[in-house]
Amino acid sequence: MKKDNYILVDGFKHYRYLQESYSENEMLSKSKNYFEWANKRRSVRHFSEKQIPIEVIENIIKTASTAPSGANKQPWTFCVVKSAEIKKEIRLAAEEEERKSYNERMSDEWLEDLKHLGTDANKPFLELAPYLIVVFKRPYEIDADGNKYQNYYVNESVGLACGMLISAIHNAGLVTLTHTPSPMRFLEKILKRPANERAFLLLPVGYNSEESYVPDIKRKTMEEVMKLY
Ligand code: IYR
């Protein structure tokens, strides 16, 4: 007799699921290769203006949207900006906030900590990159009657989705950086987002420009980041 491919738990269907596993040797080689590939990723600030098919961006966002989330609420929206006019509007607003941050809001300690990265209030990549992905978190949902429904672990969930987004961008051979102009409310206004959305992260996506440099930073050592008990 054919076995059912699901069981019922409190009346809810739970499907049979089995993740493919590998031999120890395969596992060692796959995990090492994955690390070496991930370790090549860098935050890049120099973009080419070359266009990218929208299907690539869609695949990247589909990947991000597979992230685990509190109670599976998937409390995120990914706004994709291709329009040159809107990119310009975002650049001007971001640079205005960044000028205030660099000149008045950031502490001396913070500015000192950023010196080696060579960042400043100018953000040309916000216009040059063919796409901007603006990630919004949704602390709650509103239905058609105006009732509010809470989401859970919203920052954790959206942070996880952003990690997967960054990895998917790297996998496609494209580059990005996590830009966090602060405060970010201008993004909600420019993109006319609903009341239940808050800007979380802005990622320009594009090809790396031919002439591009990244700061000489080091990853922490395994002794620093892993403790075996
Ligand atoms: N948001 C500013 C400043 C900045 C802050 C941190 I923390 C960085 O790691 C890098 C930059 C900017 O984008 O320039």
From TrEMBL:
A Pfam family recorded for this sequence: Nitroreductase
Top-rank lineage group of the source organism: Bacteria
Gene Ontology MF, one: oxidoreductase activity
The entry's keywords: Flavoprotein, FMN, Oxidoreductase
Nitroreductase domain span: 40-207
CDD domains tied to this protein: iodotyrosine_dehalogenase (cd02144)
Family matches, as InterPro entries: Nitroreductase, Nitroreductase-like, Nitroreductase/BluB
Protein's UniProt name: Nitroreductase
Native organism taxonomy: Bacteria, Pseudomonadati, Bacteroidota, Flavobacteriia, Flavobacteriales
